[in-house]
Amino acid sequence: MATTVLTSALFSSNIYAQTNANEQQQQWHELEPTVILISIDGARHDYLDRYAAPNLNRLANEGLRAEHLQPVFPTKTFPNHYSLVTGLHPQNHGITENSIYDPNFDAIFRMSITHEVTNPRWWGGEPIWVTAELQDTIAGTFFFPGSEAPIKDTQATYWFPYDGSVSNRERVDTVIEWLEKPQAERPQMITLYFSDVDSAGHGYGPGSREVAQALRNIDNEIGHLVTQLEQRGWLDSVDIMITADHGMARVDQTKHMVIDQAYDSERAERALYSRELAHIFAKDGEIANIVAELEANLPHAQVFTKETMPARFHYTDNDRIADVLAVANPGWIFAREFRLEDMQNDPEYFRPRGSHGYDNEHPDMQGIFIAHGPSFKQNAEVGPVKMVDLYNVVAHILALEPAANDGNPAVIPMLLNVEPEAE
Fold first, then answer.
1. CA–CA separation, 329 vs 254, rounded Å?
2. pLDDT in tens, 90-123
3. Among 67, 35, 292, which Cα is nearest to 138's?
4. Residues 383, 68: contact at Cβ < 8 Å?
5. What is the side-by-side order of every strand in the sheet holding 301-305?
6. Which CATH architecture has domain 256-351?
7. Which residues are catalytic?
8. With a threshold of 0.85, does the pTM exceed it?
9. Residue 422: how many other CB atoms lie within 10 Å
10. Are 331 and 352 in contact (CB under 8 A)?
11. CATH T-level topology, domain 31-248+362-415
């Protein structure tokens, strides 16, 4: 009986709230062109088909869904988020990895080093919120790489230092609060970031129950955003773009290569390692020796120099790109010698995990792309979209003059309700 009473009370409460919302809807102001750019970190392109995500699928079915969103190389979080908002490849914007060494000022950039993350010397190009602010359009960023630094002496009007303890619901509700501001204070360019799907993928692999639950949780937050927009009569006035920075590959930790046993580290001036990539800055005359040793000892990796780097990576013309780059094959990882024993003695050593950072053309590295709103085509499916192409799309919607970028303008009529320009 108690459950029935509670259910009835909740039903009555919901009716009352909906009635109030309907009455209030006529009082909400109209919105000028507005973009909410949402990143679901690590959301692989096929997750919408594999796992329950009714709200994301609703937006995809009513709006537009791409076959996949191709990340830039390397398929890491910071390079891709910053390519998304600048339209530049990492060699051109300078965020070449999550961890970076710059030989010109002999310094290290890592996500955990706050005074470097907030230092504009690392951040090249012009992120979309800077483009907006420089053209008298207000922007708000909720946890997006680059947003904590004054790039071109400019930041979004609304931004926050990253704090992973801030709930996803608070993030969504803050975006709604921004939209409720008076026109003179209201942002038209908004970014929003969720990390949960990526964390679950790393911990348990892309085929896990944990990923399914993380995606469902984020889907609920997207549903909350949609409901709040609907109640204010804004859902068909706001352009929502849902992206991922990269996909996720299943890895088995037994399939590892000990990277610092694969070559003589005395030949290196400096090296930065992740589970998928090894960036080695060689001492004078040692590049060929390092390459030879790595090729002999890393049977499940590819080894490149700047001269042999595939042109499609767009990963050569920057001093922050190392002399030698080793890229593990998908499904394989690099391990460090001093961590090997702890890794193998872990009771969950044999549990599947997930990794990214591999070749950006590999199917498992592809992310999702969904768009919904008045500017986008409706009930549409399109082919693959590249990460660097979306900056121009946002700039077009907001009538901004884009900064120089690597994007293909032909993507604009592919996604938006505009006619392609005559040749």
1. 14
2. 999 999 999 999 999 999 999 999 999 999 999 9
3. 35
4. no
5. 268-273, 277-282, 324-328, 301-305
6. 2-Layer Sandwich (3.30)
7. 77
8. yes
9. 4
10. no
11. Alkaline Phosphatase, subunit A (3.40.720)
